[in-house]
Amino acid sequence: MLPLLPSRLLHLLPPEKAHNMALRLLEFSPLRLRPPALPVRRAGIETANPVGLAAGFDRHGEVVRGLLGLGFGFVEIGGVTPKPQPGNPQPRLFRLAADRAIINRMGFYSHGAAAVAGRLERYRDRGGKGVVGVNLAKNKTSGDAARDYAAVARAVAGLADFVTVNVSSPNTPGLRALQTEGELRRIVERVRRAAPSGTALWVKLCPDLDRAHRMALGEALAAMPVEGVVVSNTTVSRPAGLRSPERGEQGGLSGPPLKALATEALRDIRAATDGRIDLIGVGGIGNAEDALERLEAGASLVQFNTALIYGGSLLPYRIARDLARSLEPDRQARPEAGAPVPAYSSVTPQ
Ligand SMILES: Cc1cc2nc3c(=O)[nH]c(=O)nc-3n(C[C@H](O)[C@H](O)[C@H](O)COP(=O)(O)O)c2cc1C
Questions:
Q1: Residue 240 lies in a domain
Q2: Residues lining ligand 1, CB < 6 A?
């Protein structure tokens, strides 16, 4: 089958143009792939399989149906800011082809909450029942992050299955400084009040915190009304061994070079939370082995973004299928083992 996202052809274009082209192709995608069911009920959602799309790919909620049709169990759109904003000047997206990685400094380019909510509403009105989350972001010039996150959560109330408080993108000044117990408590309380009771609330952390900070945050988050912690966002570090000339660009690094750091951060948060809160593992996942490693490190669900850019449209299906193949015997033999638990048997309609 001709891949819907022909990565090699798209990569002849500058990164942001290629991405926009990929979105246009997805808009008209006929694919409705259904990997073998590996149902999970964790982190406040019920999904047909534990493999999700991470934030930043469909930032305006334009291609939810097309993405779910690639075989993702769930899709996170955004980051979405309350008011529309243009983000940072271009170029702001860089391919590190030799490392199969990306550096981005998009700076929350967003169509704004009203436009995204309108698209989600149309998706639901047309019968779309897929598991969709919204990554909450703040406007660059806003002085009240909690108010911004709550405003976006309110705009998508009843339309999103989960919302993610993103205090970890590196491209908005001051954002990562919100990763303190006090700030997070204030934000979580406000978003909790804004979102309907059935909406799961996730908090997404950055991988660049030291161990003591991770442990303290994990401990604090376990005591908050939060269903999931996403570990992790992109890194501002530049791990040794990067080969691409673009490695010096400013911004957040994602893809395989982030894998070790994101897994280490996940293990620390897992140790701090000790099963009291569900974890979503993300960062450098590109195949079922990576996904399995993250589940074994304590995640209940996984997400990826960069691998879709390099791996093409069949990758979500393949990862979910291969994961099901490797987990199924294990789950039957030891149903309590592994993070995804058999919780319901229907598959999620798209
Ligand atoms: C171009 C781009 C934009 C992103 N935008 C967001 C965002 O708005 N909010 C967010 O929480 N994460 C954002 N991310 C981070 C991803 O969701 C993910 O956490 C990170 O890329 C690591 O996963 P990966 O290695 O599979 O890409 C973005 C990533 C990329 C590559």
A1: no
A2: 54-56, 78-79, 93, 102, 104, 106, 135, 166, 169, 204, 233-234, 254-255, 258, 282-285, 304-307
- Residue 265: domain span: 7-235+247-328
Q: Which residues of 63-79 are buried (b: 16+ CB within 10 A; e: fewer)?
A: bbbbbbbbbbbbbbbbb
CA of 21 to the centre of ligand 1 (A): 19
pLDDT (tens digit per residue) in 272-290 = 999 999 999 999 999 999 9
Residue 345 alpha carbon to ligand 1 centre in Å? 30
Give the C-alpha distances (Å, rounded to integers) separating 325 from 36, 254, 288, 312, 348: 8, 27, 10, 21, 19
| Cis amide bond preceding 245, omega within 30 | no
Among the listed residues 169, 254, 300, 313, the single catalytic one is: 169
Please indicate, yes or no, if residue 119 is contained in any of the structural domains.
yes
CA–CA separation, 34 and 29 (whole Å): 14
Give the CATH number of the domain where residue 276 resides.
Answer: 3.20.20.70
Residue 249 pLDDT exceeds 90 = yes
Could you give the number of structural domains in the chain?
Answer: 1
Q: What number does the ligand 1 atom closest to the CA of 101 have?
A: 25
**Under 8 Å CB-to-CB from 125, ≥6 apart: which residues?**
none
Mean pLDDT of 255-283: 98
User: 162-174 pLDDT, tens per residue?
Assistant: 999 999 999 999 9
Count of C-beta atoms within a 10 Å radius of residue 160 = 30
**Is 169 an active-site residue?**
yes
Residue 164 CA to ligand 1 center (angstroms) comes to 12
Residue 333 falls inside a structural domain: no
In a domain, 11, yes or no: yes
> pLDDT tens-digit profile of 63-74?
999 999 999 999
